[in-house]
Amino acid sequence: MSLWPEPAARCQKTQGWFELRGKPSLRSKLSIVVATAKMRLSLVSRYKGQLFIEMLIPIVFASIPIMLGRATGGDAAAANFESNTGTSDYVAYMLIGSVTFMIVSYAFWLVGYWIRFEQETGTLEAIYLTPTSRFWNAAGISLYSAIRSILFGTLSYFVGALIFGINPFRGALLLAGMFILVGLVPLFGMTLLFGALIMKVREANSLVNMMQWGVSLLMGVFFPILVFPPLMRTLALAFPPTWMVNGVRSSLLGVGYFFNEWYLDLAVLWAFMLIAPLLGYAVFRRVERGIKRNEGVGQY
Amino acid sequence: MTTGTRSAPIKRIDGLSALFSSLFAMSRKEFIIMRRYPVEFIASFGQVFAIVAIFTLAMLMFADPSGESAGATGGGVVIYGFVLFLYLSDTLWTIGYNIRREQKQGTLEALYLSPASKFASLVSRVTNTLIWTSLLVVAGIWLMSSMLGKLPIANPALGAFILVFALAGTFGFGFALAAVTLRVKEAGQTLANGLTFVLMILCAFFFPFSALPDTLLAITKLIPLSYAVDAFRSTLMDYPPGFPELAPIEIEIVIVVLFGLLMPIIGYLWYRHSETHVRKNGSLSEY
After folding, report:
1. Out of A13-17, A40-44, B273-277, which region has the weakest mean confidence (pLDDT)?
2. Mutate which: A56, A63, A67, vs B, most B CBs within 10 A
3. What is the nearest CA distance from A242 to chain B, expressed in angstroms?
């Protein structure tokens, strides 16, 4: 008599956690999300030097226009800045923009670059052999990116405020946090669109580099988008990060919402939140299917 | 049965002929690789466009909205500093991080099994930097001119002279980073990143040195590259009031020339020393 039950009986014993006969349960799908995020966080925690530098990057980037502005404007720097942007606190303005730039960069490098990363680490085939949908892997990467960008963005903001001598607790902090959290979802949806392009073109590094700077220009990282010509301004308003960064600045510095009220701007972000991830993932899947039919996703 | 044909005697080359032959072949290889990635080429221009536009618009936010624009001096400070920053950034990555790329591509062992000069492999990447980055520089200058109006371009011969020695010093800096990368391996990426950002502030590529606090300025004055940045843009802007900022131009030119002559030698000697060290302890092939 065998000590081990038959395979079918074994599967029935584990029913409720994972059903071999049917599709994975919601609980198991969510466990994939958590496991993916945990794995990537564990991986990145081994590179403490890199994390430290990433925390300093927004502060360094913010210091460039701050010092350039002080040299350009002299004693009238704050007054000129207020005339052009609606606030004289250019230090906080630049720091907020720079931190948001870091959040956008993380999204492109972590979510948009995700498939390419799996190819480089040799884990892509293993992922495709599992019965899970890529959606849950992408959700796990997005969760990881959100944790990393919010954590380091917050640290950068407070350390930068300490270095530059500004008050980090001014304005409506909770509302600013809300704009960031709501803005992250459509941002990740947008980066999935971009991830589809990377899968097709494969020259990932240069594309991501260009996109992170291009989106930063469009969202007005160091200036209001009102300085753009009308067509470019319209294009900028089609980007969720533009609403995100303006929402944060308006909450903390009072520069003015696009629709004059915070709940109207937040409503636009909610609309993006519903549309962008679905659109991004649909395009991603379509491109993925096309590549699978042709040269194959595993081709490096 | 065919009779064997006598093959032509192999022409052997050695010494400087071998070095230059290797250098030419490796440079040609780098250029061929560069040509295969047109998307990277176009994306580089897009990136330069975005960076120049971001910092120019940021600068304009501090200009008097009713008066004159930030003007040629402000634009000159940014764009000429940006030129040197582009070369520095490319140097740190393509020369300094070079040995890691050879390891990742799997060509390191083949390189060391051949009698070709290993240093030629390092220097050949300079060719790539000179061609590619120079094109990006021209694009950046054109873009900024179109946004701010005509940029000052005075004393072009002296400016070119300073640029040549500044570049030579920068390449020597890259060789030194390559020497360090041989020992620290993947941590070289973090090092290159960190150095880029530290030098971005200390060498004031995008703003005048007068904007730096006194404590940082004291450190800035110890870095020869700072004098190269100051001399280069002050010369091309025809020495507006307050420029150059760190020292008189004659002293700055001497510093830049010494930097350009000595840094490549120091970087090369350091690289050879590190290479010998990692070959002796067997860590050269460790990934």
Report:
1. A13-17
2. A67
3. 14
Q: Does B287 touch chain A (CB under 8 A)?
A: no
Kindly report the three-state secondary structure assignment for every residue of chain B: CCCCCCCCCCCCCCHHHHHHHHHHHHHHHHHHHHHCCHHHHHHHHHHHHHHHHHHHHHHHCCCCCCCCCCHHHHHHHHHHHHHHHHHHHHHHHHHHCHHHHHHHHCCHHHHHHCCCCHHHHHHHHHHHHHHHHHHHHHHHHHHHHHHHCCCCCCCHHHHHHHHHHHHHHHHHHHHHHHHHHHHHCCHHHHHHHHHHHHHHHHCCCCCCHHHCCHHHHHHHCCCHHHHHHHHHHHHHCCCCCCCCCCCCHHHHHHHHHHHHHHHHHHHHHHHHHHHHHHHHCCCCCCC
Q: Does the distance separating the beta carbons of A65 and B59 come in below 8 Å?
A: yes
Nearest to B54 among A47, A50, A221 (CB): A221
Name the B residues in 128-157 with CB < 8 Å from any A CB.
none
ipTM comes to 0.82
- Per the CB < 8 A criterion, the answer to whether B262 and B168 are in contact is no
Nearest alpha carbon to residue B137 among B207, B200, B89: B89
In a mutational test of the B interface, the residue from A47, A72, A98, A109 whose CB has the highest number of chain B CBs within 10 Å is A72
* Chain B residues lying within 8 Å of A222, measured CB to CB: 54-55, 57-58, 61
Question: How many whole angstroms separate alpha carbon A172 and alpha carbon A249?
Answer: 10
Average pLDDT over residues A172-176: 92
Mean pLDDT over each residue of chain B, to the nearest integer:
82
Q: Does position B71 have pLDDT exceeding 70, yes or no?
A: no
Rounded to a whole number of angstroms, the distance from the CA of A55 to the nearest CA of chain B is 11
- Number of A:B CB contacts under 8 A? 127
Q: Do A209 and B78 touch (CB under 8 A)?
A: no
pLDDT tens-digit map of A139-159: 888 899 999 999 999 999 999
Is the CB of residue A182 less than 8 Å from the CB of residue B20? no
Burial of B194 (0-12, 13-18, 19+ CB in 10 A): middle
Spatial CA neighbour of B151 closest among B238, B46, B55: B238
Kindly report the CA angle at A106 between A100 and A111, in degrees rounded to 5?
A: 130
Element (H, E) at A57: helix A48-73
Task: State the smallest CA–CA distance between residue B47 and chain A in angstroms.
Answer: 5
Separation of alpha carbons B286 and B186, rounded Å: 11
Q: For residue B21, what pLDDT band results from cuts at 50, 70 and 90? A: confident
The pair of three-digit structure tokens given for residue A78, joined into one six-digit string:
């704050």
Q: Please name which of B49, B43, B86, B136 lies closest in space to residue A207, comparing C-alpha atoms.
A: B43
Q: Indicate whether A128 pLDDT > 50.
A: yes
* Predicted local confidence at residue B285, as pLDDT: 65
Which of A47-51, A272-276, B241-245 has the weakest average pLDDT?
Answer: A47-51
Q: Are B199 and B225 contacting, i.e. CB atoms less than 8 angstroms apart? A: yes
How much is the average pLDDT of B15-31? 78
Q: Is the pLDDT of residue A94 over 80?
A: yes
Question: What pTM did the predictor assign?
Answer: 0.81
